Amino acid sequence: MHSLLKLLILVGLAMPAPTGEWTAASPESQGISSAKLALARDFLAQQNTRAALVVRHGKIVAEWYWDGSGPDSEFDTFSTTKSVFGTAIGLLVDDGKLKLEDPAWRWIPEWQQDGRKAITIFHLINMISGLSSRAPADLEKDDNRLTRVLQQPLLYAPGTKYEYNSYAYDCLSTIVRQFSGMEASEFLRRRLFDPIGIKHASFGFFKGRTEPSGYLHLSARDGARFGYLFLQNGRWNGRQIISPSWVQKVSRPSNEVNPHCSYLWWVNSTGYSEEKTLTPHGWKDLPRDTYSTTGRWGNNITMIPSRDLVIVRFVGTGKAELPPNDYCKLILDSLVGP
Hints:
Elements: H1 3-14, H2 34-46, E1 51-56, E2 59-65, E3 75-76, H3 80-94, H4 121-125, H5 145-149, H6 166-180, H7 184-196, E4 201-202, E5 205-206, E6 209-210, E7 217-218, H8 220-231, E8 235-236, E9 239-240, H9 244-250, E10 261-262, E11 265-267, E12 291-292, E13 300-304, E14 309-314, H10 324-333
Antiparallel strand pairs: 1-2, 1-14, 3-7, 4-7, 5-6, 8-9, 10-11, 11-12, 12-13, 13-14
């Protein structure tokens, strides 16, 4: 096993998870300068941020709200939804009910008759299915949206080209429902949200089907819970919620087509395997082990395992796009101790 992974697992197992509500601590008690942290707060305020939260060593060391929001406010997280929803696939893989190399046509019969029969679950969750990303003009008016999505033509051989395709990702909702025996949102509530204490969260639906690509509304504190679960290698209060192997998958490159996108998380490297040298990419000022959810307008949950940090920045809707590099660097600059 890679030496860095061993270290991160040991660190993750050593730190306690919050048993109820989060525990707050002074920045200095967790090796952070309050004065320098204030620079990050001021910067975020100038960028139309509505909620920001910093967790270090399992404790909230900074929590800021603007524009009338507060700890219970739920924000539209846009494509951060994809990272959360993808955890349902991880849980099914952990259960042995699903394999990433399984062909999707087994559950989407429409694809069995042409080149789409080569599309696997791995292709869908990594945006390398080869399907067209253009949706029909009347898609939102269609009573059976998923049926129309399944009619997308194949433009490239699966696994050969990356193309951000929310509609192809939507197909995973059907697969989760079939494997879990329940609506995907209910499956995630029982297996993920309830066990780690997420209370302020709600999925979007279209014609009764959970939307996996967007519309998840989430509070900053509960976003931090989700991030901290992954920082702890999938453990929460001694219980393994999601396997360490799934955490490893989403936190490092998964494919050579786009090494920066891994199971709809975003990782800070261009390398592919442990045998190759991983070089920083995307967030030049952040540690190589940084990985993050990424939602439109900068609705992000960012993990930095080597610094034992979870950083949440939510804005909901509005023109406030902000990459993690810009504000996470200021928070890293505030670290003065281990």
